[in-house]
UniProtKB/TrEMBL annotation:
Domain ABC transporter intervals: 564-790
Any one GO CC term of the record: membrane
Pfam families (alphabetical): ABC_tran (PF00005), ABCA12_C (PF24526)
Keywords: ATP-binding, Membrane, Nucleotide-binding, Transmembrane, Transmembrane helix
Native species: Eragrostis curvula (weeping love grass)
Protein name: ABC transporter domain-containing protein
Similarity field: Belongs to the ABC transporter superfamily. ABCA family. CPR flippase (TC 3.A.1.211) subfamily.
SMART domains xref list: AAA
Length: 875
């Protein structure tokens, strides 16, 4: 990212970002272990429970009872007889009924107000208008089947004499009689149908099959299954009544379009298999809830990851180092996608291998499409949600609550509404717009098909099944795909607006800014905003007034030598919880040339960090602006940094970030930078930053800040907490670095300011009190010598007299048990006179120690800061 080489290529950016992602991933070891083991745990749990249930069901106490009727020569039972008569109550359910009564023929011609009409769920054009319900004139389709078509025909004619000529008798197979419905049978139908009983089984399906009560169907199927020796089937019927109703009615609805017989036949022909292969398949029944949790587990992980970048200001830092939005999005998205795909593949393969029917029975194509859309939607949702969080802790808690909550709530709502065929379908679709619920619904559908498939020995959900009107999967896929696209666009837009990486906000309408006149003043048009307050503030600070005049002149007539120009920068933090607004920086104007280091000295809370944060784009100025090599910092915070060649770098000195630099990937720029801060040799650069000392971390931060040859560097308290040796080392690096760039540093160390800074500003309560080079300031504000003398306490008076003789306007600034300190105005004393006077006094006084020093910068700082604070308090 050296400026001479131009902006880094996409591959370089991708490479760097990928490394950063892997680095963060590696650091979250606990999360990685959690997301790997949770699916394994759930799948294994399902398998274990399944085996326990199977073993239980296979025990003799639940199998049809038997007795031995013939004992072999070896003493074992050679022949046994089984049946209800040999069974306990628990065993009865699994015995065939010896001579089951014939299935009574039932007929259902529903009342007109229940008959099917055109609706959103039955959009067929050949259905009547709903108004027929009021007039009881809805047409009914009655299907009569029997072993002997002739009988069915006779019955039909007797039933509907008026329609006889148009009746079409068809030879329906008797297997259809295994489905019989009836809840609204009228006695006279039964009488009419009586003759059919003696000729075989008869099935009559009412036109409005869909509206039959669920329970009625369940009961009928139960009897029917008993008749067919499939006792276990009853379990399905009661458990899965809505599905059964839907499946049959679906087939029936299709029949209206012409192929009903085949469809129904297709459905019922599998029925006999049910009893033999039935097992309570837990993976299918519980999949929706458990698998929702498993799949959504990546959501909080991604959300936390994105919010962490925001909280730690990593995103804004990456931007400042030249990372563009395009590569960031593309690479972050691809990274999450890869992570999710690997996770899902692992989950599906593991589930298949350990024998979960959910995965084995449903077609893999359907699973792939569904899971692929799910994970994409999840990633888009994470990007979108990240905009609204600024704390990792909150994001993590809410993320996990969403995962477990949406699974449980989904389970509750879907049991309540989706399985209720009378619940308006539109509302179900509305519910499914919540990503967690659509995921639940999709899994629920796959689970239901897997259940049918595993119990009937057929395939689960196939591609073809997506066309079934009762199959919610198609709607889920459509809703999820649309949401995915919308959320992604919205998240990208909001990311631009609210700066996902932290920092200042952009006007939401800024996308239209190309249509508007540019509002920010150009470098050539000085800002006259807030001139009034500026004049008042600057009245008593000649340095500041002068600096402002220079700034204004430079804005009109820019000069290539000026690296940084701050034009009346102001920051007001809005008051919270009833507190007033905080004016942190009040109209700061400053000019800094290339090759200069400017030091900002100020007491705690003076506003130094706020100033630096504005300069690097972490915080938006309330008013005013600054130009760093001609680039407006207001553009910087508006996200245009990537369009301009960035020349600003953040030195996040207080909390250095860990980074990964391996030997193989160190490029020239990295090597050079590491060498410059003495971290290259001895493979120090390959070590984990965690293992660096404080001084090494700070030097590393300098190295990072210098990569890309920035023209301006901002340092916030660079040497805080360093031992003298490390500090000297660091100062050398900074001295070297300031040669061809401008540096602004804040510090509490006067020594550091004197060593490194060409100019200083003492900053108190948001404004400069004075500006100048260290010597100048000492000369101006410290025109005194400090005279210190330690004698016996009873001689203090005499010492004071001595000092007054030397300098009548001397000012005692300190005294404690014999030690006294005086300020002697330079114009009143000569150093030789002081030495002479002390020499003479030695004969009468017991002088333990004495000294005469010039004013230090610290004295100047204390004087100016105290003066300004006192003035502000008074004001
Ligand atoms: N985000 C914020 N919201 C509200 N007030 C803030 C915010 N950040 C800083 N302040 C207030 O603004 C003032 C200036 O703070 P700032 O951190 O810029 O001072 P500083 O000179 O860097 O202090 P120090 O030397 O202690 O780091 C302080 O009174 C501080 O409480």
């Amino acid at each position: 990212m050296d400026s001479s080489r131009g902006p880094a290529s996409f591959t370089t950016q991708a490479n760097a970002l990928l490394r950063k992602n892997l680095c963060l991933q590696k650091r979250n070891l606990k999360t990685n272990i959690g997301i790997t083991f949770f699916p394994i745990l759930i799948c294994v749990l399902l398998v274990v429970l399944q085996n326990i249930i199977n073993n239980e069901l296979d025990k003799p106490k639940y199998k049809c009872g038997c007795v031995c009727v013939e004992v072999g020569v070896d003493g074992r039972c050679a022949r046994k007889q089984c049946g209800i008569q040999y069974s306990t109550l628990d065993q009865v359910a699994s015995c065939p009924i010896p001579s089951p009564p014939r299935w009574p023929a039932l007929i259902q011609v529903p009342r007109a107000d229940f008959r099917a009409v055109r609706s959103s769920t039955q959009p067929f054009s050949d259905l009547p208008d709903p108004s027929c319900r009021d007039s009881w004139s809805c047409p009914a389709t009655v299907l009569v089947t029997g072993k002997d078509p002739a009988i069915a025909e006779i019955i039909s004619r007797r039933l509907f004499p008026a329609l006889s000529p148009s009746l079409n008798a068809t030879d329906f197979l008797d297997v259809l009689s295994k489905i019989v419905v009836g809840s609204d049978t009228q006695p006279w139908y039964a009488q009419l149908l009586e003759p059919a009983f003696s000729f075989g089984r008869t099935l009559v399906l009412g036109y409005d099959f869909l509206n039959t009560t669920e329970y009625g169907l369940g009961v009928n199927v139960w009897y029917n299954s008993t008749y067919n020796d499939n006792t276990a089937y009853s379990f399905i019927a009661t458990l899965r009544v809505p599905r059964l109703v839907n499946a049959v009615s679906n087939a029936y609805l299709k029949s209206i379009k012409g192929t009903w017989g085949e469809m129904l036949l297709e459905y019922v022909k599998d029925m006999p298999k049910v009893g033999t292969s039935f097992r309570l398949d837990l993976s299918s029944l519980l999949s929706a809830l458990f698998f929702t949790w498993i799949i959504e587990l990546l959501f909080p992980v991604m959300l936390t990851y994105l919010v962490y970048e925001k909280q730690q200001k990593l995103r804004i830092m990456m931007r400042m180092h030249g990372l563009k939005d395009g590569p960031y999005w593309l690479i972050s998205y691809s990274y999450f996608l890869t992570l999710s795909v690997v996770y899902m593949l692992f989950f599906v393969i593991f589930g298949t291998l350990i024998g979960l029917n959910f995965f084995r029975v449903n077609e893999y194509r359907v699973q792939f499409v569904f899971f692929f859309i799910c994970i994409n939607l999840q990633i888009a949702t994470a990007f979108f949600a990240a905009i609204f969080f600024s704390s990792v802790r909150t994001a993590t808690v809410i993320g996990y609550m969403y995962v477990f909550g949406s699974g449980l709530l989904g389970a509750f709502l879907f049991r309540l509404f989706v399985e209720d065929t009378t619940f308006p379908y539109g509302w179900i679709l509305v519910m499914e717009t919540v990503p967690g619920f659509s995921l639940y619904r999709g899994l629920y559908e796959l689970g239901q098909y897997a259940f049918s498939g595993s119990t009937m020995g057929t395939s689960g959900m196939t591609w073809e099944n997506l066309k079934d009107p009762i199959n919610g999967m198609r709607d889920v896929l459509i809703i999820m795909s649309v949401e995915w696209a919308l959320l992604l666009i919205l998240a990208f837009y909001l990311d631009q607006t609210f700066m996902l990486g932290g920092g200042a906000r952009k006007n939401p309408l800024s996308c239209f800014r190309c249509f508007k006149k540019k509002l920010t003043p150009s470098l050539h048009e000085p800002s006259f905003v807030q001139q009034d307050s500026k004049i008042i503030l600057d009245m008593e600070k000649p340095d500041v007034v002068q600096e402002r005049a220079v700034v204004e002149q430079l804005l009109i007539d820019p000069n290539a030598n000026q690296a940084i120009i701050c034009d009346n920068l102001r920051k007001v933090y809005p008051g919270r919880d009833g507190n007033p607004d905080k004016l942190a920086v009040r109209g700061l104007s400053l000019v800094l040339q290339k090759g200069q280091c400017f030091g900002m000295l100020g007491p705690n809370g003076a506003g130094k960090t706020s100033f630096i944060n504005m300069m690097i784009g972490l915080v938006k100025p309330t008013s005013g602006t600054a130009y760093v090599h001609g680039m407006d910092i207001n553009k910087l915070v508006m996200g245009d940094i990537d369009r301009e060649r960035t020349s600003v770098l953040l030195w996040q000195i207080k909390k250095p970030q860990r980074c990964c630099i391996s030997e193989g990937t160190s490029n020239l720029a990295v090597d050079d930078s590491l060498k410059s801060v003495n971290l290259f040799h001895g493979n120090v650069g390959d070590k984990k930053v965690q293992k660096y000392s404080g001084g090494m971390k700070r030097r590393l931060a300098v190295a990072i800040s210098l990569i890309g040859d920035p023209k301006a560097v901002f340092m916030d308290e660079p040497s805080t907490g360093l031992d003298p040796a490390s500090r000297n080392n660091l100062w050398n690096v900074v001295k070297e670095a300031k040669r061809d760039r401008a540096i602004i540093l804040t510090t509490h160390s006067m020594e550091e300011a004197e060593v490194l800074c060409d100019r200083l500003g003492i900053f108190v309560d948001g404004g400069f009190q004075c500006l100048g080079n260290p010597k100048e300031l000492k000369g101006r504000f410290g025109g005194t010598y400090i005279f210190t003398m330690t004698t016996a306490p009873e001689q203090e008076q005499e010492v004071e007299q001595l000092v007054r003789q030397l300098s009548p306007s001397a000012n005692k600034i300190y005294h404690l048990s014999g030690t006294q300190k005086f300020e002697l105005p330079k114009q009143e004393v000569k150093i030789a006179q002081v030495f002479q006077a002390v020499e003479n006094a030695k004969s009468r006084l017991t002088i333990h120690a004495w000294g005469l020093v010039d004013t230090t910068l610290e004295d100047v700082f204390i004087k100016v800061a105290r003066g300004a604070q006192a003035f502000n308090e008074f004001a």
